[in-house]
């Protein structure tokens, strides 16, 4: 593999794969690869067939996308079902209207790591180290003058628990 760039910006190269790499074996070759006949175990033909049958699967450590090597050195990318991004939150930090503020370093690191762009209302799942979770919609926060500030995030919790 020469290298490729994930949609989130993470770069995969032949020497550095920032995530996890797996090998896929087609179903029609699985039995032959996993349970070969004793006589075929060490044959060069079997070894070449095994190596040729593998394709690589890469899991992006940043965004979770799956990337699979396709035909002719193409990279096919897959995104999981839409689920709200998880962001750490201090549930005690709220603004004047009761929204949870995402201003702590850990919250901002989660937002940055996932390359999130705030386009209100953005569904999110908030969590903390105690295991508490709550779903809500991220909106623009308010600055000190009470005006909407596009650089500040505030989450209005849903009426029902996550």
Describe the structure.
By secondary structure, the chain is an alpha+beta fold. 17% of the residues lie in helices and 35% in strands. It has 3 helices and 11 strands, in the order βββααβββββαβββ. The protein has helices at residues 27-34, 44-53, 105-113; strands spanning 3-5, 11-13, 19-24, 55-60, 66-69, 75-78, 86-88, 100-101, 122-127, 133-142, 148-157. β5 (66-69) and β6 form a beta hairpin.
Poorly predicted sequence stretches spanning 5 or more consecutive residues: none
- The count of strands amounts to 11
SSE string? EEEHHEEEEEHEEE
* Class per helix and strand makeup: alpha+beta
First-to-last CA distance: 41 Å
| H/I helix tally | 3
Strand order of the largest sheet: 7-9-10-11-8
Helical amount: 10-25%
């Amino acid at each position: 593999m020469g290298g490729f760039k994930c949609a989130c910006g993470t770069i995969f190269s032949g020497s550095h794969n920032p995530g996890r790499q797996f090998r896929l074996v087609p179903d029609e070759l699985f039995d032959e690869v996993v349970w070969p006949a004793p006589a075929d175990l060490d044959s060069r033909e079997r070894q070449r067939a095994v190596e040729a049958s593998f394709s690589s699967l890469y899991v992006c450590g940043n965004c979770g996308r799956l990337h699979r090597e396709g035909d002719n050195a193409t990279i096919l990318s897959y995104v999981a079902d839409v689920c709200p991004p998880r962001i750490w939150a201090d549930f005690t930090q709220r603004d004047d209207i009761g929204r949870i503020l995402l201003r702590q370093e850990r919250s901002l690191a989660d937002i940055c790591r996932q390359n999130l762009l705030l386009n209100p209302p953005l569904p999110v799942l908030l969590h903390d180290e105690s295991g508490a979770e709550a779903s809500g919609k991220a909106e623009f926060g308010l600055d000190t003058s009470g005006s909407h500030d596009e650089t500040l995030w505030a989450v209005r919790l849903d009426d029902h628990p996550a």
